[in-house]
Amino acid sequence: MGVVEDVSRAADRLSEADAVSLISHIDADGITSYSIISQALTREGIPVKPVFVRQLEPMTVPHIPKDDSLKVFTDLGSGQQGLLEEAGISPEQVVILDHHVSQPAPNGTEYFEVNSQLYGEEYHKCSAAGITYLVARRINPENTDLSKLSVVGNVGDMMARETGKLTGIAHWIAEDAEAHGHLKMVQGLNCYGLSTRALHLSLSNCDDPVIPGISGKPAKAIELLCRTGIYDSPSDSRTFEELSESEARKLASTVAEQMIANGETVERLFAEQYFFFDEAEKTPLRNASEYATMLNACGRWAKPAIGAAVCAGDRGTHYREAEHMLRHHRSMIRELCEYILETGVDIKGPIQTINIGDRYPDTIVGIGAGMALSKLNTNKPILVLCEVADEPDFLKASMRTYEKVLRRGVDLQDALCTAAAEFGGSGGGHNIAAGAYIPKGCEDDFIRRVSELIQAQLDTGSADC
Ligand code: C5P
Ligand code: C5P
């Protein structure tokens, strides 16, 4: 069926439920998806039970309540229909709202899913928070305030990364949010921390694109900002958001000149930024990208409910806890990234890999892998292995790559799922970012197999060119 029919069918099934168990992923997209549906249903008087899981896998399936409630899966489920079938969960009890690659149940049980990968190009770069917003808006057109969370989920899942802006239906949602006064789109520098970090730190931390002479050099960034009169003095620490329009223009042209003088292109230097001016100044809630990091900090460190409370409007106790988690998350991600870069990766044919053991939780290694990759060979996908805290017999694999590598035929989800299944594990995700659990002991063979599969994808991709 088409998207309109599917969204409408999902909205009807949710609104007709007596009670809903909402099973969701623990990252920013999962938490915002949960919050969108949970708030929409609560407004209709339907009770919602939250069940956050790091992933739907054999260990977490028992967390799905065995009661009569409607089971709504957000930001997961499409890739795990086999597990639902194996657990004997009836399709009448299930609605899946997702964007991961769909993997049908092996014995043919047909679960109803609204999945952005099923409706053509316009929907491809739309995360689960986009799909859940469409459903929430269909439940009640007055739910437009939830568009803000949808933008946070989409940005958190990197839907704007390659293009420098949300596209297709995800952009329509941002426009919907702006039209209803919930956000403002601003063309700004493609740097992180525009609301909370001193401008020189935003600039010097920028690695996509690398700004010649500035990236990695905060002192040089201060010099540049003072020279152009944007900073009053070296102790100035205003954020991007605090610049006047003319200062922002001057900054953009200065940095662009710096790029061009060094033979670099400026296309990745600017990006559409999504600001929430109804939030307190200089807080991470002021823009979509920092808001998403705060939610990731909560979810990936086992406190998704704190993130959900912030999404529901808490700016007191839960918010303060979220701030604390954000500080911790940032410093651990930085440490993990440094660990990967200092230890170095092994080149295995077309991929690069590292096993980080039990040093960092499996819930953050994917993020670390993605950040480290920007400082490694970006033409080779990275595969990071690590231990899983409560599953001593399994290892977690996380892979990340870039769009330019996808264009050469690479599909990480396909390679990881195939290889994991051959060794008795399972995987899922997207062509650009995927993960898997595999039994301990097979890791060397598994890496060899993933490398072989990626090489075969490249060989076929080149032949297609
Ligand atoms: O899709 P899922 O939410 O489960 O993926 C989470 C992570 O995958 C994101 O935090 C991001 O690191 C990565 N990702 C990506 N590019 C995409 C989609 C996801 O890097 N297009
Ligand atoms: O865990 P990580 O961030 O590396 O996950 C990357 C992507 O792969 C995410 O979209 C995640 O939901 C997905 N994934 C999956 N099945 C797994 C592990 C990860 O679908 N077993």
Walkthrough of the structure:
The protein folds into 3 domains: 3-146, inorganic pyrophosphatase (n-terminal core) (Alpha-Beta Complex); 187-334, no CATH class; 344-464, Diaminopimelate Epimerase, Chain A, domain 1 (Roll), CATH 3.10.310. It is built from 17 helices and 13 strands. It has helices at residues 3-16, 28-43, 81-86, 121-124, 128-139, 147-156, 168-179, 199-205, 218-227, 245-261, 288-300, 304-311, 317-343, 362-373, 403-406, 412-422, 443-464; strands at 20-25, 48-53, 70-74, 94-98, 112-115, 184-189, 270-275, 346-348, 351-355, 382-387, 394-400, 426-429, 433-439. The strands form 3 sheets. It has a 6-stranded mixed sheet with strand order 8-9-10-11-13-12. It starts with a helix and ends with a helix. The model has no long low-confidence stretch (mean pLDDT 95). One cytidine-5'-monophosphate (C5P) binds next to α14.
Brief rundown of the structure:
The chain has 465 residues and is α/β, with parallel strands linked by helices. 44% of the residues lie in helices and 15% in strands.
The tally of structural domains comes to: 3
User: What is the helical fraction, as a range of percent?
Assistant: 40-55%
The number of E-state strands comes to 13
End-to-end distance = 33 Å
The biggest beta sheet reads: 6 strands, mixed
What is the structural class?
alpha/beta
Overall body shape: globular
Unreliable stretches = none
Q: Within the largest sheet, what's the order of strands? A: 8-9-10-11-13-12
